[in-house]
Amino acid sequence: MRFDVITLFPEQFRILSEEGVVARALKRGIADLVTWNPRGFATDAQHTVDDRPYGGGPGMVMKVEPLRAAIDAAKSAAAATGCESRVAYLSPQGRPLGQADMRRIAATSGWILLAGRYEGVDERLIESRVDEEWSIGDYVLSGGELAAMVVMDAVIRLLPGALGHADSALQDSHGDGLLDCPHYTRPEVIDGRAVPAVLLSGDHAAIERWRRQQALGRTWERRPDMLRARGLDAADWALLDEYKRGRDGPDTAQAAEQEP
Ligand SMILES: C[S@@+](CC[C@H](N)C(=O)[O-])C[C@H]1O[C@@H](n2cnc3c(N)ncnc32)[C@H](O)[C@@H]1O
């Protein structure tokens, strides 16, 4: 899979190739990252990439011409390697991304990610070159670079071979529409808190059942909206009911009966 990123700050993306899962995936060729600086596509002596907004007001707007030329160059370079890239603009006005979107993005061979700056980009560039607009949350960043890196991290770890265990992405929160179960490592007891006995039992079926029940219970407690959206089969309902019954206090048990 290939990412071409249109950015005024290509240096920021170096961090992705320095350490961790994404760096390893890039080194192994599981994913490729190419950055394109629109400043290099500006035709005037000052390499101007922004200008004042029509109608007045604060801030600057990214100009069409350098962005358009950078996107077109990225598209041609990606096509030469067999990638029919789609163009996504990172924007607080875009569609909020969830894990299902990350899976869909990972299933496409190439993406050109446009990182905005200032007040954003001239609307005519979006109309003529952008296929999708993506938001990483309902808040405003000062630039699209961090948003592009968030997407790339979330997507690249889903690619075959990127994680040590093929199914670990599935067990992560949101992989199966549930939150992950709690995790423990050595020592067995710390500050008077012991690891749940079942995890020391060696009984793999019991451990799997406990983990599933914890994932269901956590999702019910923290994100009942996810349970409602996902739905549960009879076996999962039974596990969740048992989890609810095991919780402390009659009030919570009563509330549990009514949700989700
Ligand atoms: C200061 S913001 C511009 C915000 C714009 N004036 C608006 O209110 O929609 C500059 C750039 O940061 C990026 N950005 C900001 N917040 C974002 C978010 N939540 N998700 C994705 N990109 C974001 C976009 O690329 C945007 O062009």
Quick recap of the structure?
This protein is an alpha/beta fold and 260 residues long. The chain is 40% helix and 15% strand.
Q: Mind explaining what this structure looks like?
A:
The chain is α/β, with parallel strands linked by helices. It has two domains: 2-156, SPOUT methyltransferase, trefoil knot domain (Alpha/beta knot), CATH 3.40.1280.10; 189-258, Trp Operon Repressor, Chain A, CATH 1.10.1270. It has helices at 20-27, 64-80, 99-106, 123-129, 145-156, 168-171, 204-222, 224-230, 234-245, 250-258; strands at 2-6, 32-36, 50-51, 61-62, 86-96, 110-115, 132-135, 189-190, 193-194. Strands 2-1-6-5-7 form a five-stranded parallel sheet, sandwiched between helices. Strands 3-4 form a two-stranded antiparallel ribbon. A two-stranded antiparallel ribbon has the order 8-9. Helix 1 links the parallel strand 1 and strand 2. It is elongated, with a radius of gyration of 23 Å. The two termini are 39 Å apart. Residues 90-93, 115-117, 119-120, 135-137, 139-144, 147 line the site of S-adenosylmethionine.
Summary tags:
260 residues; alpha/beta; Alpha/beta knot; Trp Operon Repressor, Chain A; 2 domains; five-stranded parallel sheet; binds S-adenosylmethionine
